[in-house]
Amino acid sequence: MKIALVGQPNSGKSTLFNAVAGYRSLTSNFPGTTVEYAHGQARVNGDVIDLVDMPGLYSLTPGSPVEVSAREFLLASEWDVLINVVDASQLSRSLELTLELKDLEAPLMVCLNMMDEAARKGLVIDSRALMAALDVPVVEAVASRGRGIVETFRAALAQHRQASSSRPFIYAREAEATIQRLAEALTPSAWEGHPRAEGSGIAGVALGDSPVSAGVTRCAHAESSVAVERPPVFPTPRFHALQLMQSDPQQLSRLDRYQAAVVEQAQSEIVQLLGQPADVAISSARHAACLNLFERVTRVTKPQAGWRERLDRLVMHPVWGYLFLVLVFLGFFQVIFELGKIGETHVLALSDALLASLRQHMDPQGVTFAGLKGALLGTAGAVAIVLPYLLPFLMGLAILEDVGYLARVGYLMDAAMHQLGLHGTATLPVLLGYGCSVPAVLATRILASRRDRFIAAFLAVLVPCSARMTVILALVGFYLGANYALGIYALNLLVVMLAGHVLARLWPEISPGMLMEVPAYRMPAPRVVLLKTWWRLREFVVVAFPLLVAGSVVLSLIEFYGWQQFINAALSPLTALLGLPRVVGLTLIFGVLRKELSLLMLMQALGTTHVLSAMTVAQIVIFTLFVTFYLPCMATLASMIRELGWRLTTAAAGALLGLAVAISLAARAVFLIF
Amino acid sequence: MRTTAEFDSPLNLYQADRHATLKVLLISGNWAIRRSFNQIGVHAGDRIRVLFKAPFGGPLVIENHGSRVAVGKQLAQNVRVEVLP
Q1: Closest-CA distance of chain A to residue B6, Å
Q2: CA separation for the pair A496, A529 (Å, rounded)
Q3: Hey, are the CB atoms on A291 and B65 less than 8 Å from each other?
Q4: pLDDT of residue A385
Q5: pLDDT on residue A250
Q6: B1, A410: Cβ pair inside 8 Å?
Q7: How far is CA A98 from each of CA A8, A60, A235, A425, A596, rounded to the nearest angstrom?
Q8: How far off is chain A from B41, nearest CA to CA, in Å?
Q9: Chain A partners of B51 at a C-beta cutoff of 8 Å?
Q10: Least packed by Cβ within 10 Å: which of A146, A241, A420, A506?
């Protein structure tokens, strides 16, 4: 028994999922954050059900890759019941997806979520009337407070037991006839060239006077073998017809000629009948029906005006809004820096003490000591990064996201992001880059164009992630002072801006721009914030901890047996060029494994945690700059290959390596002159 | 088929003032542009209000049937509107 949660972005699908299925889903107050499907199991009334949390969809006509994959999932029918989660405070718009889902003619029920927010907006919704009008079960809920959750799943189970399928939404009568004709023309028997397609059947009527009809019939034969092999993707011919009628010219060009011709014929019929392009006509019909439905089932009373309005007037203000933004992020990074420093100092002191006692209790010349020392330093490094820096960052970001502030940041930053060749919607992936490049690269999926995804991913990888932040703070900040660290951040920001500018020139494209829902402010639920923090932290912890400890042990042993000279010799042209000590060559290799390993391995390679005794100020700065900008870590490269493909990833990696060498050389020149 | 010329309103959404109440006359532009507006619930005939306008050619925020949508400059220029009293 499998239930899929489907709904528009920000409607609370993930909140509902988290309430019953535990820890696997991300919830947020930013449209389009569920880029990965979350699977989980829940027990309702003794039944074990598989739950799938789908990414938010505004409609079934797909645009971005997230929407494409979501529609594919829906059409593959690997579920038994659909729960359509609806934001009650956005009822009229949300119902448009509900009507489309009804067209799937499958078991469906509606969970009318966020009833509290609807009440705050002054909406009194008669859910019984809505149920009668939609002809599917409707359950009221406030998922964030646990209300209506059990009832929702009970209703879904009942739908499954009764195997009752939704009935399709009926459009204008004239349009229905055309839809029906197209649906019949598209049934497999028609496109295999059966009598219905060639004779006086319905497809024949649709194509009768068309000048292309002769060619079409021939084509139907030629394409039939391809057509038969194709899996039956669309649940009903009517749904198939509706989807094709709304598709764009580009999608039509991918159809075989017979199908393309019948679809074009149907589209032009709609234009003649209703005076609008088919996609607009169908969408407008749905829209009008939803507005009617909304007026029938809802009474609008006076909204509770309050702090939300006043806050928005400050946050979205053309002057105070930006001041507020700067203060929020200064405060945000200040807190992380302070918390991180406290944590790091304590962890390093502890590991120093442990190492000293280890030295007393065993032979410092033995291989066991070398291995244990590596493991200890590796663990200390992992704990010193994850706990102090990444944890507050991810938690703070989750809070900003769930409150609804990040969407406002997108609005405020849109004009500035244009300078980087991006839109305000790309702010989230780039910001996530300051935490960890992996979720940042994955988050670029919310962007519709491939070009935007590449630029956003490149910039997200360019900004220092928390691992590189550790290198910057723990090496430059700790030994040379906060001003040096700030200088590196400022330089990075400059490089990010220049890179965005250059990329936008190299790959010009007129992308349609920002169209983003601005969600209402919400109180973040502590459980959801913690789950989200954990979910984003989890991959880092699971992959990083073993790698850190193992990498540290391996390096310790390499050092013990004296093999590092071979690796350092191989990298000596690079280290010599940058004016770095030969011994850091090895650390750069480990940095690709995990960025923070560079720092740890540096201390290992130099044989001391007091770096200033082994490196000059210039060397520390150049090393940090190189580590900040050169290749992203393995996990990031893997996620880039997944999202962008080999070619673009290789190009990005090459560009980053070149950039790192250029910046480090420039820094070396500056230090030589002054 | 209705064309842009038929709705020769001198005003597009981006030119509207803050706090103005407007009626959407036509969403011009290609399929992708029409689709994004329709998906987020903005259609010809809708009554909308401009709540905020960002400086430096940034987006504006409109209210449409109770939901708030940030619309970038280029997209807003594709929406022909008429000012309602």
Answers
A1: 13
A2: 29
A3: yes
A4: 59
A5: 67
A6: no
A7: 10, 10, 16, 26, 47
A8: 5
A9: 312, 316
A10: A506
pLDDT for the residue numbered A210: 31
The answer to whether residue A445 scores a pLDDT higher than 80 is no
d(CA A216, CA A209) in angstroms, rounded, equals 12
CB contact under 8 A, A415 and B52: no
Token pair listed for A192: 């295999």
Work out the number of other CB atoms within 10 angstroms of the CB of residue A124: 11
pLDDT digits (tens, 9 = 90+) for A384-410: 655 677 788 778 888 888 888 988 998
B5-83 CATH pick, 2.30.30.90, 1.10.3370.10, 1.10.260.40, 2.80.10.50: 2.30.30.90
Q: Which of A108, A151, A140 is nearest to A20 (CA)?
A: A151
Side chain identity at A271, as an amino acid letter? Answer: V
ipTM for the assembly: 0.88
Give the pair of three-digit tokens for residue A318.
């053309």
Q: Which residue of B has its CA nearest to A60?
A: B39
What integer is the mean pLDDT of A182-203? 49
Cα A335 off chain centre by: 26
Q: State the first-to-last Cα distance of chain B, in angstroms, to the nearest integer.
A: 29
> Which pLDDT score, from 0 to 100, does residue A659 have?
94
Smallest Cβ distance to B72: which of A91, A414, A416? A414
Instruction: Specify the DSSP element, H or E, that contains A314.
Output: helix A307-315
Which residue ranges form the domains of chain A, and what is each CATH number? 2-162 (3.40.50.300), 173-298 (no CATH), 320-673 (no CATH)
CA distance B44 to chain A (A): 8
Nearest-CB residue to A411 (from B33, B59, B66): B59
What are the residue ranges spanned by the domains of chain B?
5-83
d(CA A37, CA A540): 19
* Average pLDDT, rounded, for chain A: 80
pLDDT given at position A152: 92
pTM for the complete prediction? Answer: 0.74
pLDDT of residue B9: 56
| Whether A277 contacts A247, CB under 8 Å | no
What is the SS3 assignment for A287? helix
Q: Which residues of B touch A59 (CB under 8 A)?
A: 38-39
> Cβ A90–B67 below 8 Å, yes or no?
yes
> Where is A340: in which H helix or E strand?
helix A320-361
Q: What DSSP string runs through A581-648?
A: -GGGHHHHHHHHH-HHHHHHHHHHHHT-S-GGGTS-HHHHHHHHHHHHHS---HHHHHHHHHHH-HHH
Q: Using CB atoms, pick whichever of A92, A512, A519 lies closest to residue B74.
A: A512
Please, which residues 117-136 of chain A have a Cβ atom closer than 8 Å to chain B?
Answer: 121, 123
Residue A411 has its nearest CB partner, among B34, B44, B54, at: B54
The residue among A414, A404, A409 whose CA lies nearest residue A513 is: A414
Q: Which residues in chain B come in under a pLDDT of 50?
A: 1-6
